[in-house]
Each structure stands twice: as structure tokens, then as C-alpha cells.
Design a protein that fits this description.
This protein is of the alpha/beta class and 260 residues long. Helix 6 packs across helix 9. The longest helix has 29 residues. It is globular and about 65 Å long.
């Protein structure tokens, strides 16, 4: 945002990376209408921070939740802030640390008039070389985070498919040079993606992934995607299987096999 010429005041619990020493100082340093972008771990850290901001902000101000909050939290936060006339926008953000160079994919929800207040920041963060990368997912609070949740669920399934294909290629004797096979798929094929780029980088550094432990956490959004699928009776076999595969990775001893 600063690179785009926007004035930004940052607060973090880490004194090495903050401009001010408290949320109170942050709010005081902002011109009105004040826009506060919250980007911290989902759950209680985000909930309590937004509750603190409710006491510090006033009518016409705006809070943006850019973290990976569960979409059901957004309606609660929006309603609470609305009691003081404070707007709320939820924004799913994808791009990781590479977003600084490539731009971020931004999926936001909330009223159009609230989104307009943060649009300069959205425009600064989205990819500059395409009209895509910024989408208003819906006026209902939570639309942005719901969209990002589904995005991450799809990511789980893509990663699982790459992993299963790699395991088979790496195991058979008939195939050589597996890292370069995956690298060749990055050009012209229907399975090319940024995830594939990241995987190729790792394979070239460690062909058989010997330096890695076969253990994968889940961020929560894969679970929430499957929960939403169940609630809406939407079949989701690939994404749910990818989620369960992560659970299997955490078992030192296969419990089900004992029963078998």
C-alpha cells in the first residue's frame, strides 16, 4: 500500500515492526473516515481485536477483516460494529509472500458503500497487469471469506492430486527424471499452476523429498468447506478426501489397520 502512495499506520504486538505502540495510537493517527485493516490469526485474536476497535472507532469508520476468519464470524462482527455505525468488509486474500511482486487475489464481501472506502487499498494490492484479481463476492458479510474458504478447499484437492501423481511416478522403474517431468507440465498443459511451480522448485532441491516429514496440518478452511458442503448437500468427494488424507498423515500408527 505504501508503494502505491497510500498512507499506512501499522500496529503489531512485535515492537520491531510497528509504527505505533497500541491500537489506541493507531486509531488516533488515522484521518477520518478511518479504515482499519485487521490481518491476524483467525478466531479469538481477530474477534477480540474487532471488539476493541468497536470501542475506539465511530460512525462512518470501517473495519476490514483480511485474515482467514470463518465466514460465520463476519455476520456477528458486522452486526456488532453496525451498532455504532461502523462499516465492515470481509476480504479473503491469496498470494502469500509473493503477492508483493505479483499482486494479491482479493475476494471481498459487504455493502458496496463500505467497500468503496477501502477501494484505494484494494486497487493497490490487486495484480496491476489484469482486470482480474479483485472481486466483490456479495453484499452479505461473509461472502468474501466463504469464497476464500472454497478457494482453499480446491487448493487441498489440487495439492493431493499432484502428490498422488508424484508418488506413482517416483515409485516405478520405467520413468526417469521425475522433477523435470513435473517441470515440463508447467508449459502448455492443463495442469499447470502456481502450486506446480512451487512443487517443481522443491523437487529440484530434493528429488525424493527425503528432507521433508510426511505430515500436513490443515488451516481450518478445508474443514469449513466440507462442513458447508454437508450443510448444503453439495457432493465434494475430492476435497473431502484431500482433507482426510491430511488427517491420515498425522497417525504414527494406522488405527483402522488394527481393526482390519
Amino acid at each position: 500500500m505504501r508503494n502505491a502512495g497510500l498512507t499506512v499506520v501499522g500496529y503489531s504486538r512485535d515492537p520491531e515492526v510497528r509504527d505505533v505502540d497500541s491500537l489506541e495510537d493507531l486509531v488516533a493517527a488515522l484521518p477520518s473516515p478511518k479504515v482499519v485493516w485487521v490481518m491476524i490469526p483467525a478466531g479469538d485474536p481477530t474477534r477480540t481485536t474487532i471488539a476493541e476497535l468497536k470501542d475506539l472507532l465511530g460512525e462512518g469508520d470501517l473495519v476490514v477483516d483480511g485474515g482467514n476468519s470463518k465466514y460465520t464470524d463476519d455476520a456477528i462482527n458486522a452486526a456488532s460494529l453496525a451498532e455504532k455505525g461502523i462499516g465492515f468488509v470481509d476480504c479473503g486474500v491469496s498470494g502469500g509472500v509473493w503477492g508483493l511482486q505479483n499482486g494479491y487475489a482479493l475476494m471481498y464481501g459487504g455493502a458496496a458503500e463500505d467497500a468503496a472506502k477501502v477501494m484505494p487499498a484494494f486497487e493497490a494490492l490487486k495484480p496491476s497487469d489484469t482486470p482480474d484479481g479483485l472481486v466483490h463476492c456479495g453484499a452479505t458479510p461473509g461472502a468474501g471469506h466463504f469464497t476464500k474458504m472454497v478457494h482453499n478447499g480446491i487448493e487441498y484437492a489440487m495439492m493431493q492430486a499432484y502428490a498422488e501423481g508424484w508418488e506413482l511416478l517416483d515409485k516405478v522403474d520405467i520413468v526417469d527424471n521425475v522433477p523435470e517431468i513435473f517441470a515440463s507440465w508447467r508449459t502448455g498443459t492443463v495442469v499447470r499452476s502456481w502450486l506446480l511451480d512451487l512443487f517443481v522448485d522443491q523437487l529440484r532441491a530434493d528429488e525424493h523429498l527425503d528432507e521433508l516429514q510426511g505430515y500436513a496440518e490443515d488451516s481450518g478452511e478445508g474443514r469449513w468447506t466440507v462442513e458447508a458442503a454437508i450443510e448444503n448437500a453439495v457432493p465434494m468427494p475430492a476435497i473431502s478426501a484431500a482433507l482426510f488424507a491430511r488427517f491420515v498423515s498425522r497417525q504414527e500408527d494406522d488405527v483402522a489397520m488394527k481393526a482390519i
